[in-house]
Amino acid sequence: MTRNTSAQSRHTNSTVTWLFRNHIWLFLGLAIAIFSLASPHFLTVNNISNVLTQGAFIGILAVGMTLVMIDGEIDLSVGAILALSTALAIGLQEQIGVWPAVLAGLVSGAALGFLNGVITAFSGMHSFIVTLGALIGIRGLVFIYTGEDALMVQDFSYTEYAEIYIGPVSITALTFFVLYSCA
Amino acid sequence: MTSINLISGLKKNGLLVAFAMFLGAVALSTDSFLSIGNILDILRQVSITGMIAIGTTFVVITGRLDLSVGSMLTLLTVLLVDQHNQVGPLLAIFLTLAAAVGLGAFNGLLVGYLKLNALIVTLAMLSFLQGLTLLYSGGSNVNIPNAQTTWFRFFGRSDLLGIPVPVLLFLGVGAIAAFVLTRTVFGRQVYAVGGNETASNFSGVSSAQTVFWAYILSALATGFAAIILGSRVMGAQNTIGQGYELTVLAGIILGGTSMLGGGGSIWRTVLGIAMLGFIQNGLLLMGFPYYVQWLVTWVVIIIAVWVDLAGKRGRFLA
After folding, report:
1. Which residue, A137, A168, B111, B224, is the most exposed by fewest CB within 10 angstroms?
2. Which domain does B137 fall in, by range?
């Protein structure tokens, strides 16, 4: 009986320690609790599904950035690369078709990441400087490529993929979860 | 012996050589580039980023970062222009500088005394100040209706002895800052904290206090920049300072001030900022599309910092 209690208390103890170390979950829980009480629309399947979809874009970027930051480095250029990849994935669709354009977007992102990585590793410069330069330059590339116009998707079979839902979970949010588990 | 000195001098100041080569190349391909009028124009254009960069250099030399200067510039300019219309120019300027010192003190408190990560604190400050600006202005632009008559136009729009006032302010504040950084106790402490924080603490230099004041200087310089910007534009949008922090950092880095702290100087920052201005202007004069300058800035930053680093360690690769 005593052993049982002590084991139990050790168990609660480790839970508390875990929560203390990962206090972000406490903040998340608190935020959810407060907003649920403040608005009747917050804790609904629809809203949660929306929040997941919206959060997934940043989340997908953050999964990659986490690997960089664990290395003690930083990548400031992700926003600019997101813009360029998106511009290429949409802008090239008319010339080379939907899926090759998407592939081109992915390849451009990977290539720029490769360039940043190579420069950081071989030059010994701080990754902050390397990716700050890249941020400025890639943003310039985006404007040069798009000619400062907004690009529109012409082939709407492409936009339908974002509308795929499994239950309440969108494919965007699902991509985030899958990437998270892979990483 | 002299030739060896010359070569090692060139290695240490590779940036100056590269800059001179660039100036020469553009001057040869256009005829108005190196005219006094054009140079003054360029200096006037960079005076706002330059002013901020002078203050932020103090923060960078202590080994910290200040990403909040861009949205701080927005908030201060909106505040200044709005208050100009309500309480008059003099009080508005006073309020703006007071607000700048307050914001800088807040940054300095969090980073210096509470030892929080500078990147995270000032990144959070960036969003916070953006929100504060929108709350203050209610999302609408403000402008000064009596732009032609107010004496406030002195800071951004007038000349003194044929030199634009913003340029005089930029170079004047630069000279004062250079004096503070190299000739005062506080200046030596800034280098000491950036060079080796533990050692400086053991030597009786309070790193917390030094960092605190460095952030105040960074914010105060942003306040000066807001005065020039507000006076030049005679109005303020809610995004007027967006992205300035990146240009400021790019200029500081280009000048060769180390991101790790402990090294750098005001003249390097002024040179780096001026270089960005000359590149932008030169490319436009040569007829390149506007955004090509960003691409060139990228390449120049990488090459300049890499060459600088390679010169210091004597090897090209890390």
Report:
1. A168
2. 48-266
